[in-house]
């Protein structure tokens, strides 16, 4: 694989790497006929991100050497990020960037051609891997918001950097509310400051959502994509369903597209986070006919809608639009297509910085089913394909 990036596109590529670094510690790089794919997933499998750069994005693009299969690799995010650490330097001094994969030496070579004939060469070691893909379909989400990234960027600006989650909802009067989310403390006398921003319907290019709906998701990952979209002057689309179902954040133009899939908080009631609309004080409708109210955080979790379909296929068909996610052995509980046992909750992955708190967010890719045909036809399913190994 060999590609050449020139001009302002070098900074665009670097900005995309910065956005991906907010999610995962490993970067999956895969050259495709449709373009160069950069993907990552966090350790708890609650956030996934993918950028696809079309061949026209590059001055020169060759997915594979003639007669050879395309290489795909996995590298440490920290190593790749170090190449594009200073975005100001990329814009002022770098004229072009050449990226090539050398399968014989297992090296990813990134060469920066700077002004005055200076060349900086980075040789990064990598591991062969299977394709990282998450299967999702924004068309199945009933609620859609689309607005210029600048509008949403100004809305999240007042929120403190340390804020973990934010609630997005539709208030009465068709106004979109962004509100800081705070977990209820055991001591009810402790009151945290709550920040709320309201955006009018006229600021949105598309607002297809009923009043009263609301989801809560991680702000850190959202800010990553939002920052990229603002710098590229793109519109951001948000596709979501009921609380607990994954939300899809997407950007797209003729040269690139990006998708961030984030877990949402699963709460039957919004408690103190209720928006002004009285509709939000009603419990979310049961997602299964056999669901019964319970105080457990996952009582209303329609887990089957985004459980993992464990498959052994190594094919990469449709990899452009279907971003595969490999599970570590500890995240593959044995479970039948029916309701899972309580032991699954004990196998929940531990929380890492920048990821949702435990027993509040269900991992997008937690659990397994042997027969995908038994999965309910609910909206916004997220499936993942098991790889044959990490390396």
Automatic annotation (TrEMBL):
Pfam family example for this protein? Answer: Rad9
Q: Which domain of life is it from?
A: Eukaryota
Kindly state one GO CC term assigned in the UniProt record: checkpoint clamp complex
Q: Name one GO molecular function term.
A: double-stranded DNA 3'-5' DNA exonuclease activity
Biological process GO annotation list? cellular response to ionizing radiation; DNA repair; DNA replication checkpoint signaling; mitotic intra-S DNA damage checkpoint signaling
Record region (Disordered): 318-391
The family line of this record is: Belongs to the rad9 family.
What name does the UniProt record give this protein? Cell cycle checkpoint control protein
Name of the gene this protein is made from: RAD9A
